[in-house]
Design a protein that fits this description.
With 159 residues, this protein is mostly helical. The protein has 8 helices and 2 strands. Strand 1, helix 2 and strand 2 form a beta-alpha-beta unit.
Length: 159
Amino acid sequence: MFLKAVNCFGQVKDKFFIVNLMKEEIDEVGHQNMVQTVTDNATNCKGVGEIIESVHPHIYLTPCVVHTLNHALKNIYAAKNIVDSEETFELCNWITDIPGDAIQIKNFIVNHNMRLAIFNRFTPLRLLSVANTCFASTIAVLKKFKLIERGLQVMFISQ
C-alpha cells in the first residue's frame, strides 16, 4: 500500500533525512504492520535500508524494480561505448537501433505540415515528444508507436 509522498525540494536527501521520514511512517502505521519499503537504488537509500533493517529486522528495504530495469536497459543501450562489452552489444544492438528509427519516423512526420496532416487522417492519436531524461522515456515513445502502428502502416501505403 502506498502511504505517502513527500516534496523534498531543497532538502539534502541523505540517508539520515530519509530514515527520519520513514521512521515517522513506520511509527504511524506500527512496525508490526510493515514488512517492506521500496526506494530507488541511490547509495543513500541503501544506507537507509541498513539503518531501518537494523532497528526492525523484519522490514526489508527493496530497490524499485522500474528504477533497476531503467538502469539495466540504459547500460545495454549505451553498451556500444564500452570496449569490454562488444559481444553483448552485438547481441543487443537492436535495442539501440529501434529507438533511433522511431525518432526519425516521428521527426519525418511532425516536422512537415503536409505529412502531419496526412498522419492525422489515419489515427486520432498523436506522436509523443518526450524529454530524453532516462531510457524509460524511450520506452514510452516505443509504446506509443505500437499504439499507432496500424495508422502509420495505412498512411504509408495510402494514395
